[in-house]
Design a protein that fits this description.
single chain; 159 residues; alpha+beta; HIT family, subunit A; five-stranded antiparallel β-sheet; 37% helix
Length: 159
């Protein structure tokens, strides 16, 4: 069996285990979308950049409804989440021209959720070879773009 180590995510996981409230609810309450990295607000969900991205353009679609339980989320919210996933994919395509996408949810700590109390859908653009030697050998993630630049690009593409 092979193991893939991701030590660069430790800070994210460690921060998520602190009982300081919900990071997603706090981001919405800030009312400062650029600082919170909220690139788009829908009626029932918002799109936010991942502060610890796997790739440039890694976003999450998050319901305003605070719930960790998928069956507890109202159907209209889930429907809008999928519509936003389509819209985000088109924005990522226009902005970054990726070769593929990962979409998914990690529900619960055992499933890999860094934020366990508020479900969210990850949307990641992918390219062949985007896990390069730096990640594998040097335990370092190389991101070619800072979050403020990614924010500006995706905010404009989703407007």
């Amino acid at each position: 069996m092979d193991y893939l180590w991701t030590p660069w995510r430790y800070r994210y996981i460690a921060d998520a285990t602190k009982d300081e409230g919900c990071v997603f609810c706090a981001a919405v309450a800030m009312n400062n979308d650029p600082e919170a990295l909220i690139v788009f607000r829908g009626a029932k969900n918002f799109v936010i950049l991942n502060r610890y991205p796997y790739t440039s353009g890694h976003v999450m679609i998050v319901p305003y409804q605070h719930s960790a339980d998928l069956p507890a989320v109202e159907p209209g919210t889930l429907a809008e989440m999928m519509v936003l996933a389509q819209r985000v994919q088109l924005a990522l395509e226009k902005t970054y021209h990726p070769q593929g996408y990962n979409l998914g949810m990690n529900l619960g700590r055992a499933a890999g959720a860094g934020v366990t109390g508020h479900l969210h859908l990850h949307v990641l653009p992918r390219w062949s070879g985007d896990s390069n030697f730096m990640t594998v050998v040097a335990e370092t993630r190389v991101e070619p773009e800072d979050l403020s630049t990614t924010y500006q690009k995706l905010h404009a593409a989703l407007a």
